[in-house]
Amino acid sequence: MRPLPTAAISFGMVSIPLRLYSSADTSSAVSFNRIHKDCGSRMKQQYICAKDGDVVPKEDMVKGYEFSRGQYVLFTAEEIKALEAVKSDTIDIVEFVPLSSVDKINLEKVYFLSPGKGGDRHYKLLSIALQKTGKAGVARYAARGKDYLVIIRPMGDGLAMEQLHYADDLRSFDDVNLPEDVEVKDAEVDLAVHIIDQVSVDEYVPEKYSDEEKSRILELIDQKIAENDITEAPVVATEEKIVDLMDALKATLAAKGNDKPKAAKKGKGRLKSVSS
Predict the structure, then answer these.
(1) How many domains, the chain?
(2) Cβ atoms of residues 134 and 98 within 8 Å
(3) Is 56 domain-assigned?
């Protein structure tokens, strides 16, 4: 795995240099491009003005926040840039909480952590201490112009960093409509528990499960390639202009106000023709 930009955990007077690794490989996902079915060319995305229907280039765009229907507060690229968080190379732990108190609904993304140069001992110390206490460190981290809320928790013999949602990003389960005044008999519960016990295992093994949709897509791709069911994008020829040298010279003189080239003067400076 290739590490992401380095950082350091900081708590109290302790600083631990780190390397961050993404826990998921999204490059293995199957992605599609949009193709014009008539000619096989790849489509280009454009932004169209809703008022006049014109294609708007990127340099003519600004960002806007719709505070009321059809009314926007506009921001320039410079204003947006000024609001971005300043990149931090330090993951500042502000408090420790019981790991069991962090509900999984808060989880957004996971990173693996390994010690950076000179950080082996402190890294191991924090890992063991968190395991013994059952705690996780709540920390703040700034990268790519954003402030992130994270926890540092033990994972195996090492550490992981879990990026969390902020509280105001989450919806409440209290807003979900649940059944009310529904009677469930004890015999029905016992039967359901019995069925669950029959198909239960000791632990979750992710390797037992695969993305079946992805497998079907890859199988069909291989089949189409084998059957030569392939559309090749047309080569767009570059327009080449063949310019006659004499025409170009005449055009240059005409552009300067000289419609005809001046005749050569007789005498000393006259060029003689050479016969072969």
Answers:
(1) 1
(2) yes
(3) no
